[in-house]
Amino acid sequence: MIRSLVLFTHVVGVLALFVGLGLEWIGLDGIQRSTTRAEALPGLRLIAIVPRLFATALAAIVVSGFYLGARVGVLGNDWMRASYGALLLIAIVSGPVSRSPMRALKRVADVPADGTVALRAAAANPILRLSLRIRIAFGLAIVFLMIAKPGAGESLLVLVLASIATIATSLTRRTMPSTAVQGYR
Fold it and tell me: What pLDDT digit, counting tens, does each position of 41-87 carry?
């Protein structure tokens, strides 16, 4: 019974992590598409939820994962080591790398006099998008590693493919329509 509860906690933690990534994506897109401050507020509210959701999800994933790994005896396996590295990268990208651009977005949001242009510019920071792409790619890579349980070479290949996917999606640029001509399509 305890193992099932811990496994359930692990799976819910992973689901919560991806829900948080989705909320962040939707929030940033909502801010970038906004034409007024009022339209940007729902996106800002979504982004405000994400740090607590991530912290809770990562705590659930790590604690339950270590329990399950110790119980089964796989903590030292190659795929687990690759997963540790990917989790560390996700933590670095979530925290120190994207903290400054996210704080800048929140500072702009806290100043009611600032217009939508400043909010949109802060939400369009390329570091925020890159951080999001890295976390999605490496989160999916970890899920694959947990399912496939490959050896060292294959685990490294999975992480390289996640890196390539991040780079490939970062090279494509989505253009946003100008707010001046949005109504005249």
Answer: 999 999 999 999 999 999 999 999 999 999 999 999 999 999 999 99
Handedness of CA 97, 99, 102, 107 (dihedral sign): negative
What's residue 182's pLDDT? 47
Q: How many CB atoms lie within 10 A of CB 100?
A: 11
Q: Helices 2-33 and 126-148 meet at what angle, rounded to 10?
A: 160
User: What type of residue sits at position 9?
Assistant: T
DSSP state of 1: -
149-184: burial string, b at 16+ Cβ within 10 Å, e else = ebeeebbeebbeebeebbeeeeeeeeeeeeeeeeee
Query: Where in the chain does DSSP place strands (E)?
Result: none
Nearest-angstrom CA–CA distance, 60 and 64: 6
* Residue pLDDT, tens place only, 92-105: 998 888 989 999 99
Q: Is 69:75 a contact under the CB 8 Å cutoff?
A: yes
